[in-house]
Specification:
It is built from 13 helices and 20 strands. It is globular. The strands form 6 sheets. The chain has a 7-stranded mixed β-sheet, with helices on both faces. The protein has a 5-stranded parallel β-sheet with strand order 7-6-8-11-12. The chain starts with 5 loop residues before the first helix and ends in an 8-residue tail after the last strand.
């Protein structure tokens, strides 16, 4: 496979997608190895690796611990807004995820149940997603700070057994309290979750509702470690809402096996990173980019993923991205054109860039909306690395 040209690989995937992707599926760990790629279902609802049994969390976390990557960094949390950093190895991540999954099980969450995650850009957001995947629960991430009415609509649609949240998020210099928004959303919603697990952040201490709310730190510390639950390849991994064209949120459901296989393949073949490399998607877990290229893609492939709680400018300046790239030896950055427009506007001659050493940096990928040619050319000339504008959306993944 390594010696084939891109054209040959692409042609194979077009001519015989079932055979091609079955070959790629062998890179993952399966509880029951699939014997077929795609089953004949009505487009676009194909069933991939239908007879396979898998777990996304096992592939993103446990198998790296088992294969000798226990001490490799899995997550680097860089938060200029709190002036703090946290680094988490795969071994540490496994313990965090297994105990959080155990807490969910103690709250009554079981395979197939939905869990809404309403959190800022902190490691616990990824832990929450992986904990759901670990026990076969279906997560639905909603942007932290999203309006109560909109959150209520999503609660009613997903009917979650539980909601995982934090007391606040931080936008620049502003602390945004999440708990009042969540409490109001639950009041508005017809569906009532049986439990809410709340992570208290130092910047804001939120009130608790007796009988419904659990303190995250206390609950997780006392919970048993949950094992990974094998699920069918076609088992839903998550629901992600998009406004669509009618104004009503539509839940896009992504299954487990096909998603994991495609993401794992893309890390090397699209983004050009090897296991162990540092990959940074400067997005939010509330977007599909955050699901695919902050959480699942990098971790499944064995990369170190950067979780950034800040802005491209103003936290503290237009050199913020360059600092992160230098400090954490980022090989590839994936972000929105909007971010680069903001950096260019603040620092058109790239004065801040000269303060940093980007010797490890190899490529920039832009997605989220079309990149205007002026910004694309500026990024190419400024960074002197390939800049790839690739275009996709929540619905197509």
């Amino acid at each position: 496979m390594v010696d084939r040209s891109f054209a040959e690989i692409h042609q194979h995937s077009i001519e015989n997608p079932s055979e091609f992707w079955l070959e790629q599926s062998k890179a993952l760990a399966w509880y029951q190895v699939p014997t077929a790629g795609v089953s004949a279902k009505t487009s676009p609802f194909y069933a991939w690796f239908e007879d396979g049994m898998i777990n996304a969390c096992h592939n993103a976390v446990d198998r790296h611990v088992e294969s000798g990557r226990a001490d490799q960094l899995a997550i680097i949390h860089d938060s200029p807004v709190t002036q703090s950093q946290t680094k988490i190895t795969f071994a540490e991540l496994k313990h965090m995820v297994a105990s959080t999954a155990g807490a969910l099980q103690q709250m009554g969450v079981k395979m197939g149940d939905r869990v809404v995650i309403y959190m800022p850009m902190i490691p616990e957001a990824l832990v929450a997603m992986l904990a759901c995947a670990r026990i076969g629960a279906v997560h639905s991430v909603v942007f932290g700070g999203f309006a109560a009415n909109e959150l209520a609509v999503r609660i009613d649609d997903a009917t979650p057994a539980a909601i995982l949240t934090a007391s606040c998020g931080i936008e620049g210099s502003r602390v945004i309290e999440y708990k009042p928004l969540l409490d109001k959303a639950i009041d508005i919603a017809t569906h009532k979750p049986s439990g809410v697990m709340l992570l208290q952040r130092p910047q804001c201490n939120a009130s608790m509702v007796d009988g419904r709310d659990y303190d995250w730190t206390e609950t997780v510390s006392q919970a048993p470690l949950a094992d990974c639950v094998p699920v069918p390849s076609t088992h839903p991994l998550y629901i992600l809402y998009t406004s669509g064209t009618t104004g009503r949120p539509k839940g896009v459901v992504r299954d487990t096996g096909g998603y994991c296989v495609a993401l794992n393949w893309s890390m090397k073949n699209i983004y050009g990173v090897e296991p162990g490399d540092v990959f940074w998607s400067a997005s939010d877990v509330g977007w599909v980019v955050g699901h695919s290229y902050i959480t699942y893609g990098p971790l499944i492939h064995g990369n170190t993923t950067v979780v950034y709680e800040g802005k491209p400018v103003g936290t503290p300046d237009a050199g913020a991205f360059w600092r992160v790239i230098e400090e954490h030896k980022v090989k590839v950055l994936f972000t929105a054109p909007t971010a680069f427009r903001a950096i260019r506007k603040e620092d058109p001659t790239a004065e801040y860039l000269r303060k940093y050493n980007l010797e490890h940096f190899e490529a920039l990928y832009l997605a989220g909306e079309r990149c205007d040619p002026d910004t694309l050319i500026w990024a190419q000339e400024t960074l002197q690395v390939p800049v790839i504008d690739h275009w996709w959306q929540t619905e197509t993944g």
